[in-house]
Amino acid sequence: MLRRRRRAPLLLAAAAAAGVALVAPSPAGENARSVASALQHGVARSSRAVYTIGFVVADYKYSLRGLDSGSADYRAKLSEIHLRSAKKLLKLCELNGGFYVKAGQYVSSLRQVPKEYSSTLSSLQDQVHRGQLHDNQDVAIKVQYPGLEQRMKIDIMTMSFLSKSVSWIFPDYKFDRILVEFEKSMSMELDFTLEAKNSERTANCFRKNSVVKVPYVFWQLTTREVLTMEFCYGHKVNDLDFLRREKISPTKVAKALIELFGEMVFVHGFVHGDPHPGNILVSPQGNGKFSLVLLDHGIYRELDQKFRLDYCQLWKALILLDTKKILALGEQFGVGKYAKYFPVIFTGRTIESKSAIGTQMSSEEQRQLKEDLSSLGMDDISSFMEALPRDFYVILRTDGLLRSILGNLGAPRHVRLLTYAKCAVHGLEKQPKLESGAINRMFLQVKTNISYLHLRVLIEIAGLLAKVNDVKHKAVDKLRRMFQEISQALHLLM
């Protein structure tokens, strides 16, 4: 079954090409009524959200009363509430639209949420119409609905009001900057010509990569409100049943995916900001081969050049567990003492860890980390988030979504870590040689080459150890299954 699309008449695209407005311009009186209507709808959306969330909270609180949390009845009832709540939230997102849909898309992408939520809300990831040109070529058409911009502004005002209210009640709450970043991201999505330009720029970045596919833009059928692109066939990147039917390795898909985004971040510094499964398709090419189709280029972040290089250096330090360098980079990023949590956030190791990259923390490390984190308050967390450079927000969000997808694909932890490390080395190779003079440039080149070789050796050794570890686990699993089969056979004979 191919990716579903709602069909749309070619008239929409034809109107866009001819420069015909989809909604006729209104006189001044109509504009005033339009604003009043938008305000009315904004109040309705806010009220609907408060009611729905209140209902969900009450449902969890009262429906589970009197049940033992470890009982089968509790687990069955909890699953029912999950499904009931997910359906209500889906309805809320569909009715309210705008950032509510974006929030639903994000939640559906997280591996950590109950399966009832991820499966129910995943329908929000399909939102593009399908049409056909006169030459019978299939196209994907995105249409901006009338009044969307006004509704978005009101929703942002509502979020801002709620954020300020929370800040007044809890003075340590300092997440206003995240709201500003969210508003900028939503504004980008209101101009489809910007999305088309982002799409073409990404296609150019990966023009030599045969695995990555970016849909072609039909500029003659594209305006600020209508975007017409080549229709690409495929399934969501986390559709394991589809991958098995096509005999495509989920681990290979995971590796190609993390290589794609690793190159975006560390080499090009031009990052897709919304990589949920609905925006990444796997298109079969036969014999287990595939293409990754990257969709929805509305939200991108162009990283500051210095930040990109510092982030490459951070990953190099994370792989080497160079404590001094990590803390120094923390000062440059403006987070000070909180830099010691970078290894935990990105690699799952503490800054004092002695364990190999890609392995779990020891029980002692987990105990020490738990004690350390227990001393942190809301003011510490908000101060850390407030201090982070703006570019870090898209990095953290993108990495969080990718981790969820990799987890669903069953990829080993070291795949992401080693791929990021290699991309960081590649990104550092491309840094400009700022030093003047032939002697300085020569010493810099020698120093860079030695550093590169050192890190490459460590990466390859870590990769080899990870492969050996995978083989060991597979062998143990195979032996365990053999013993189980032998035990069952002996039981039948006896």
UniProtKB/TrEMBL annotation:
Pfam families: ABC1. It comes from the Eukaryota. Residues 127-327 form the ABC1 atypical kinase-like domain. Residues 1-23 form the signal peptide. Keywords: Signal. CDD domains: ADCK1-like. InterPro entries: ABC1_dom, ADCK1_dom, Kinase-like_dom_sf, Mito_struct-func_regulator. Belongs to the protein kinase superfamily. ADCK protein kinase family. This is ABC1 atypical kinase-like domain-containing protein. It comes from Urochloa decumbens.
